[in-house]
Structures are given as structure tokens and as C-alpha cells.
Amino acid sequence: MAIFKEKSNFKLYKGDCNRQLMKLNEKSVDLIFADPPYLLSNDGITCSNGRMVSVNKGEWDKSNGFKEDVKFHKKWLKSCDRVLKDEGSIWISGTYHCIHQITYILLEMGYYIINEVSWFKPNAAPNMGCRCFTASHETLIWAKKTKKFRHTFNYELMKEMNDGKQMRSMWLIPTTPKKEKMHGKHPTQKPLEVLKRVILSSSNEGDVILDPFVGSGTTGVAALMNNRRFIGIDKEKEFLELTYRRLTDEEINNGNKK
Fold this sequence. Notes:
It comes from Clostridium fungisolvens. The chain is an alpha/beta fold. It is 31% helix and 25% strand.
């Protein structure tokens, strides 16, 4: 499959991320943010805007059983490893349904865990079953290839963004606001503030940022907003079209600010 859309500062590829990543040169990416399918579409229910709705998001989010899910995560992580620079780093977002599998695989690959960040959602959906604690956070794993490689961490900038105090590993950020969904909806869209922190903390201007599961394109918006280059991959045409609308809108907005 050819490039879906391309401009001077971003490229979007349509297809399986493992196949599309083979088109990139080895060690050509500075930072990866991956928000893989959590594989939660199991016919359950949740609450959205005060209504009970299905948790099913699409075929791409269905589990094929523990062993197959682990194989899926191993495959895309190894594909990402090939294109990540030695001094680069990777962020992965997930819940307890998948993040522990992913962390184990990273350690098995020899990766060094830099941080585990908890994104706390003060306005998370309520617990409909009332049989456990209300899920109100997601985990972000930040890792690099080995401990010996020096990674980028913009410590002073993070301190500046946190009122002069050290940025901690608990991020209190509300779920995605309506204004960030004006170009269309995605069932698992991340708020821009999460991706801004990820990109500003661990990359520099001009760096290449990769998202192998681009979804709604929030990683790309945060990258362009902060003068990074972006590569996004997704199987779903509708999500790539949504991403393209958001990226071109961000280009226009950036142009008007200059």
C-alpha cells in the first residue's frame, strides 16, 4: 500500500503496522508513542454521557485469547524496535488488560523502563457493575533500548510546565474535551494534553515522532504543534481521514500564528 497522505512534515500509511514499518529505515525514528488496541471489545457495557453503551469498538479491538494477544504485542514491539534510534525512546499507553503483557515483553527484549506514568482521569466514566473500584486511570510506560543509551528528557521544561516544581509521574488530566472532537469521533481518543507532555518531555524540535496505531491523530497534532515531524499508521481508512483533517487544520493554525 502506498502512502495514504503526505506533506512536508508528516506521512500517513494505511495498513498493518508491521508491514508499513518495514518501509521505514532502521533506526530512523526519535520517539514512538503507541496506543495499541486494549482488546476490550467483549460485548460488555459502560457509561458514556450518562447513557449505558456497548464497550465494543470494532473488530480491531477484539481479543483472540491470551496467547494470541501476547504474540500480537510481541510482533509490533519488535517492528518498532527496528526503526527506533538507539538513543530514542518509546511510550506505550494501556490499562491492566494489556499493559503488563507489554511491559514483560519490553523487559524480555532487554529494554529499560524509564518511568511508569499514571494518567488519572478525574471525570472517568462510572462503574456500572458496582463490583469493583471505578477504573479511573491509564498507565503509560516510558522505555528505552538499554540503560546505557542516553535518552532525551527535557527536565527544565517539564518543571516550567508544572509551576516550577518537578513534574511527577501522576498526571491529572480530564478525558478528551468536545472541542478536540470537532473533526470527528474516535472511540479511544486521547486528550491533547497527554500527548503534549509526552512529546515535549522526551523529544526535541525537528525530531521524527512515530505512532503505529494513529487512531484520531492526537500524537500527530501534538507533534506538529511543537515543530516535530510525524509518521502515523492505521488499518482503518476513516481514522486516517480523521487524522488528516486534524493535521491539516493544525498546519493552518500554526501558519496563522507565525
